[in-house]
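#help-structures
NK: newbie question, is this the right format to request a structure? protein is Transposase DDE domain protein
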Amino acid sequence: MAMGTRQDEQPLLWIATSDLPTAPGHPFYARLNTVLDAAGFDAFVEAECRRFYAAVMGRPGLAPGRYFRLLLLGYFEGLGSERGIAWRAADSLAIRRFLHLGLEDGTPDHSTISRTRRLIDIETHRAVFTWVQTQLVAHGLLRGQTVAVDATTLEANAAMRSIVRRDTGETYQAYLTQLAEASGITTPTREALARFDRRRKKKSSNQEWTHPVDPDAKITKMKNGRTHLAHKAEHAVDVDSGAVVSVRVDGADVGDTTTVIETVVDATEQLERAGAPHRLEELIADKGYHSNRTLIDLHALDVRPYIAEPDRGRRQWRDLPEAKALVYANRRRLHGARGGRLRRQRAEYVERSFAHLYETGAMRRTHLRGHQNILKRLLVHAGAFNLGLILRQLTGWGTPRGLRSRLGALTRLITRYLGLLAPRWADLPGTTPLSVPVSTYTTDDLGGALPA
């Protein structure tokens, strides 16, 4: 066979459609499209988004079904930015088939995706999240009787060095320079200011400082010990199936006991809109959610709590005597066999949703600003997580990575079996040994195009 060489060729003016490159499609996204098309996803989102588009005038915009598929792609492919989503859509033929784009169609730019996100309001994104929950109910995967609640921090798309004082608008750098000069440091350098700032006891607070571009980002200490601007994401998860029932975004400086009641109310409304077979009756949470007022409010909502109790020593009930019986009843439930089992389920299911949405889903550091924009992405990400539960019930894998790992295990099993049979085949009369070692086969030899 002769070696081919690269030549500078003039682009063809016309090309036959039979000469265009084709791809078999990704098996995961093909099955996901089958589920969405069977449930009428495109017709639903087009009806919900019709009021955001002009009837006859204007340039054709990004179709609603294609826009929400792009956001689903961000979750399944682990792409946190809209630039990354646009690049992945333009790079993969299999993703084009998932988006219902032909080879003659151009893929949407990242600015088109962001403009469509700003155009469509948050209630429409929430309606898509609710639509996915109705599919969970139809497949028998959502009960809603027992819900676990927990919160985590998301790193904001804002830098600490850009914060300004609320009263004067002075930057943090200028503020540090004044303090350093007042302490006797003349013409302080950047390194000297950093050392001076580390030695200070009281540094910055959200009452004094804010970010000029993203005021929703709050100063907080992350889990790794760094101080950063961040947001707080709170999940309510059904412990019977692991499905995400409610997603909320608040300031990182807002305590858990302040937001838990709003999350319970939102989860109750979501279950009613989705047509869940049960109402919310039980709540599981860690000790950060325990307070007298929380137990009183949950009792008023007719929700039975299983909230871990911190060690507060001997309690006094003069201020809130009505909380005494509720605290003791919650304590008895926690020490029972069911209480221990529910606490283990809370740690398993809620942390799993955090890992999928924020670690592998690449939303731990947000590329958006403002709670409204972040919540739009989180609602679609949570909907994609719930769609993964449906696909796991139908096929056994809920993400492209899960499919790849299963194919990898199958390939290893086949190659091992072929390796055991290879010596026997070589001993048969009229046969020759295998020309290619069986260990060289990969998962790409099974099923065509697989994700890299």
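mod (FA): yep, format's fine, and the tokens are attached above. DSSP finds 15 helices and eight strands in the chain.
NK: thank you!
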